[in-house]
From TrEMBL:
GO terms for biological process: iron-sulfur cluster assembly. It comes from Streptomyces noursei (Streptomyces albulus). Pfam families: SUFBD_core (PF01458). This is SUF system FeS cluster assembly SufBD core domain-containing protein. It comes from the Bacteria.
Length: 395
């Protein structure tokens, strides 16, 4: 299994080229600064750093302004425990966009085109014992959306966002955590095979707050997600986990950015993917920036990919940029490879058929991430989905 890894111990700095997988590059930069205005972003042509892996022709016009909302409505259903409020607000509501501005043309288009933003609020010092569930179901139309989840100080919540059905969706999601709050978000992309989904996920993590994100991507013709972390105070922590299973012809792209601009904050990223089928294409970009003011930072990011068949392609690029030597630690790693023959031989030598041994290896590969969810019904559903994907490939 090929691997590229860089680790910078406490008190050290780095300079020169950054170790990456797939190709050598420096930390990626967007072609335009963040903005709410679509006009501030040029129409991409595929040569730009942030678009070079994305098949623009499959975006259904989300990138060039030709996509317009219409067709069957996107259905959004929210189930929340008592005490949680849910509102539909206009874009001038101060909570909308508080967690971060759009960073590319599609996100700006989504911001300028949504009609009403959905705001879910958990009051301060409220510890929910049941998850908030947001179900998003497409029926073939084109839609733009904006979702806000806000936790007051010392509140605790789990949010599950489920995407199913067909259609074209561009949406921004904001997570705003007050001081000492704890939020776990599970975002599942289980679209039909012809769906297109682009989303920017912005998290603003307050002082001593903890944010955990689990992004799961199975379906869709094209899924392009952009999780981003910003810190609003020292002592904040962010854990970003991701699981994707890319099938024949699918394009699944996850582009992460963690902006350490505040002292004594922590981030940890682990994304894992499996690919099978001709022209299955997965892209993972992991950018971590430690600014000069972010002394005491502790960060690490990891991406691993398991290629199950010929004809699949992975682009994995971890980037780490450090502007101060006064850190606890920083590092990144990426690895892509096929099944470990020794693992398969070990299982088959004990009487386990080859297909079953293959399933066991993949289940073990993903089990660590699925267990981060902490909701038995969601965990069981995802493991069953992985089993179904493997059975379909073996048929």
């Amino acid at each position: 299994m090929a691997e590229a890894q860089t680790t910078i111990p406490a008190g050290s700095t780095t300079s020169g080229s950054i170790a990456v997988a797939a190709e050598s590059t420096v930390a990626t930069r967007m072609s335009a600064p963040p903005s709410y205005d679509v006009a501030d972003f040029p129409v991409p042509h595929g040569r730009e750093e942030e678009w070079r892996f994305t098949p623009l022709a499959r975006l259904r016009g989300l990138h060039d302004g030709t996509a317009t909302a219409g067709g069957p409505d996107l259905k959004v259903d929210i189930t929340a425990p008592e005490g949680v409020t849910h509102e539909l607000v206009d874009r001038d509501d101060p909570r909308v966009g508080k967690a971060g501005k759009p960073v590319d043309r599609v996100a700006a288009q989504a911001y300028s085109a949504f009609e009403k933003a959905s705001v879910v609020t958990v009051p301060k010092e409220t510890a929910l014992t049941e998850p908030i569930r947001i179900r998003v179901h497409g029926e073939g139309g084109t839609a733009f959306g904006h979702q806000v989840v806000e936790l007051g100080a010392f509140a605790e919540a789990v949010v599950v966002i489920d995407h199913t059905g067909d259609g074209v969706l561009a949406a921004n999601v904001d997570y705003v955590l007050g001081d000492g709050a704890k939020l776990t978000v599970v975002s599942v992309q289980d679209w039909d095979d012809t769906a297109v989904h682009c989303g920017q996920h912005n998290a603003l993590v307050g002082r001593d707050a903890t944010f955990k994100s689990v992004v799961v991507t199975f379906g869709g013709d094209l899924v392009r997600l952009h999780p981003r972390i910003d810190y609003a105070g020292p002592g904040a922590e962010a854990e970003l986990y991701g699981l994707y299973f890319t099938e024949q012809g699918q394009h699944q792209e996850h582009r992460l950015f963690v902006d350490h601009d505040t002292p004594n904050c922590r981030s940890h990223v682990t994304y894992k993917g499996a690919l099978q089928g001709r022209d299955a294409h997965a892209v993972w970009i992991g950018d971590v920036l430690i600014q000069a003011a972010a002394t005491g930072t502790d960060t690490y990011e990891l991406n691993r990919n398991l290629v199950l068949t010929d004809g699949a392609r992975v682009d994995s690029v971890p980037n780490l940029e450090i502007e101060t030597g006064e850190i606890v630690g920083a590092g990144h790693a990426s690895a892509t490879g096929r099944f470990d023959d020794e693992q398969l031989f070990y299982l088959m030598a004990r009487g386990i058929p080859a297909d079953e041994a293959r399933r066991l290896v993949v289940r073990g590969f993903f089990a660590e991430l699925v267990q981060q969810i902490g909701l038995p019904d969601v965990e069981e559903r995802l493991m069953n989905k992985i089993e179904a994907e493997l059975e379909a490939s073996a048929a």
